[in-house]
Amino acid sequence: MQEVTIAKKTDRRYSQYIADFILFLALLAISGFFLYRLVICQVIYAGRTDGYPSDVVAYIMEIQGTNTEYNFAYPLFFLTGKFFNIFLPIGPATAVSVVLYNGLSMILLKKFFEDLLIKSGRIRDSVLSHIVITLAVFGCCVMSMWWLPRFGKFKLPHKDQVYAGTLSGNPWHNATYIATKPFSIVAFFSFSELLSQYENKIQIKTAVTFAISLMLSAVAKPTFNLVLISAAGTVMLVRFVRSRFKNFKQSVLLGCCFFPTFAVMLIQYADMFGSTFHDDVQGIRFGWFEVWKIYNPHVLEAVFYANVTAIICFLFFAKDLIKDTLYRFTAVFFLISFLEAGLICERGKRFVDFNFGWGYMHGIFFFQSISVIKLIEATFSKRFKWYWTALLWVLFLSQIVAGILYFKGLYYGRDYRTLLPATWT
Questions:
Q1: Is the pTM of this model over 0.85?
Q2: 65 in helix, strand or coil?
Q3: How many other CB atoms sit within 10 Å of the CB of residue 286?
Q4: Structural domain boundaries of the chain?
């Protein structure tokens, strides 16, 4: 009789989890459908000025082997596009590649959310917790900077643009950023796990996972790697000095995980120092938010609008920096991404491209995502009074709504920088 009761409870539990599985698949399918249609329109309008501006023109040329204008040293997305182009026309091949990497990002983010919250025991394993995580993951993959639709009367202070000069962790116009996201997710969470253990014993499986994912992230687009390597080096150096150089061996072993990525990036950036491409000076230099201020002179306001949920959450969770390795590393990662975007720029015609802003967008994404993990944990543990928790969820929801409205604008052909009709710019 007892065995029958246990079996019924088990069947009921699995049947309840099916609801979460169906919900996640539905959100994955819906987001995939609309993203596929957006990329198809971007391909159709490639090279035109009357709608759907994006970076897809160069991607199409690279996939088809006709690119002579741009120097792409990160081939992963283009190889994926070429593979699908064997079976599909160039438009669907490009769109399927984007949808594939975006869907993989959502799957991996959900996996790490559940590992950190449920498997670690921070919150109780229940259907509700899984559904909340599913909705939160979807929110993290959709949310954007704060902005207000142009109703005529209402306007955020120092917010003349929508995306330009503010930026977002989910830029839908750049396929290579989307392609690097799943690998950056694995690398970020794997390295955070290594940080909590490497001074005692390094788990080989985690180290190998980190090394491979970091290398693949560089092959997809090296923007994430520039920030993570700087953040990791900073944290490891501080620990090295604090331990009075006693963790030298452990630091060297962890450093070996970076060697494959260093090899890839040396090849990628070989032409960045003192060489030319199409008679244009290459290289990098330092400046004081020079490029950023071209698009938005109000840098601090831009940072707030892009990270409002994470910043307000930080006011509540700041003391967790002492014990929470993941949250502490996230703060360092975000700070370095911000400094690199503001203080480093490229020379030549690529100066205005603000390419170091891509690393900052990774910083936005992970700062927001880890803050949401902290918010979920605090909600289930009833850490704060209900009205403070409600405030944080409202802020998160507001950025999700802003992200959906932003995507809607792109979906109907608006300029991704301003959400004005493309012919107005």
A1: yes
A2: coil
A3: 8
A4: 15-183+270-424, 184-269
